[in-house]
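User: Could you go from structure to sequence for me? I need the amino acid at each position, not a summary. Structure tokens:
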């Protein structure tokens, strides 16, 4: 195959593979540097909530998982710490689902398989020169550092702890979230419409992280049962517990030229947000959609590293990411504030939001990418 590429993608996750597959449809010569995952690595417990826009993008490259590995969420229940609740329903909104909870290892395997059969993509064992380099290496990107880009991060006083749970009762295709004393617990339905397994993401205060991780399985599940009000009955841990610090971060520049090499950032290499609304991967795939559309519709005489095109990508995506990040940070800070006064304010707000049908529906459809 050719040794010169139109685009070299650095990063072998969902964003990098999806970008490669979409760009290859325009017969661009794509190099994909995707470091291999060690065979002895622990099982991946992550599950992502993907909206309708992300679903359509992955379907367009024939990589949407089957019904067992992409569970449609028909209802969503959000509970505050003093009686405030907000409920969303796919039936009310007249949509097939509010979101889909996708098993990460399954999706990644499908994307890797699709890349194998795409003749315009060459999987590389090291980065290669290209007209444009797109960095999709995640929040700890080394290439971003090599290009001298500052990654401006603000730490939340929380760690996210993820695991998978077997439930006594079926999840009923309901995603559930509880805000309690500055912490956020989410149950995401897995294993299809009739499943009784959930992906758990628990944002706990930094000081509590070691004790939650080191707690016995029985005690850990008892805590979860208490916080979740026993809505799914007895819970059993069926995976390791994984933890990572939470932050809001954004690269100071998303595009540029370094040592004559034009580059752009996408996905977590460009931005991270709090996971409380499950928008992280949706934002990354929206980066993919925007960049591929701009390159697809460019004038025939413009190269893929054209500065005007890349500035358009950066400007458009920064606007959406900044707005989403501001909303997530505001919610996190609101529910992090101690005291009965703040507790009453935020739960009054939840109850008021629940009654405002138009605003609630608008916010739901925006989150769904509609």
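Assistant: Here is the amino acid at each position, in order:
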């Amino acid at each position: 195959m050719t040794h010169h590429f139109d685009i070299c993608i650095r990063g072998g996750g969902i964003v990098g593979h999806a970008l490669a597959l979409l760009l290859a449809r325009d017969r661009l010569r794509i190099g994909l540097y995707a470091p291999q995952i060690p065979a002895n690595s622990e099982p991946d417990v992550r599950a992502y909530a993907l909206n309708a826009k992300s679903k359509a993008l992955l379907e367009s490259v024939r990589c949407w998982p089957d019904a067992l590995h992409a569970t449609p969420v028909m209802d969503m229940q959000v509970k505050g710490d003093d009686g405030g609740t907000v409920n969303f329903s796919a039936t009310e909104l007249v949509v097939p689902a509010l979101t889909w909870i996708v098993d990460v290892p399954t999706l990644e395997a499908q994307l890797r398989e699709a890349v194998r059969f795409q003749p315009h993509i060459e999987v590389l064992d090291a980065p290669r020169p290209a007209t444009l380099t797109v960095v999709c290496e995640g929040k700890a990107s080394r290439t971003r550092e090599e290009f001298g880009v500052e990654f401006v991060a603000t730490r939340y006083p929380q760690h996210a702890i993820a695991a998978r749970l077997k439930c006594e009762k079926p999840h009923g295709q309901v995603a559930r979230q509880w805000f309690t004393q500055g912490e956020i617990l989410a149950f995401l339905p897995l294993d299809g419409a009739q499943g009784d397994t959930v992906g758990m993401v628990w944002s706990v205060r930094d000081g509590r992280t070691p004790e939650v991780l080191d707690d016995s399985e029985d005690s850990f599940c008892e805590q979860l049962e208490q916080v979740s009000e026993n809505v799914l009955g007895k819970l059993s841990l069926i995976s390791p517990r994984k933890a990572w610090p939470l932050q809001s971060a954004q690269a100071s520049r998303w595009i540029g030229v370094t040592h004559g090499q034009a580059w752009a950032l996408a996905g977590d290499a460009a931005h991270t947000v709090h996971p409380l609304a499950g928008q992280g991967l949706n934002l990354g795939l929206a980066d993919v959609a925007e960049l591929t559309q701009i390159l697809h519709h460019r004038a025939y005489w413009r190269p893929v590293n054209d500065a005007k095109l890349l500035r358009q990508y950066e400007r458009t995506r920064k606007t959406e990411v900044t707005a989403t990040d501001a909303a997530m940070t505001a919610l996190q800070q609101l529910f992090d504030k101690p005291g009965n006064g703040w507790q009453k304010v935020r739960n009054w707000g939840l109850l008021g939001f629940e009654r405002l049908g138009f605003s609630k529906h608008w916010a739901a459809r925006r989150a769904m990418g509609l």
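One structural detail worth keeping in mind: Residues 156-245 form a domain with the D-Amino Acid Oxidase; Chain A, domain 2 fold (CATH 3.30.9.10).
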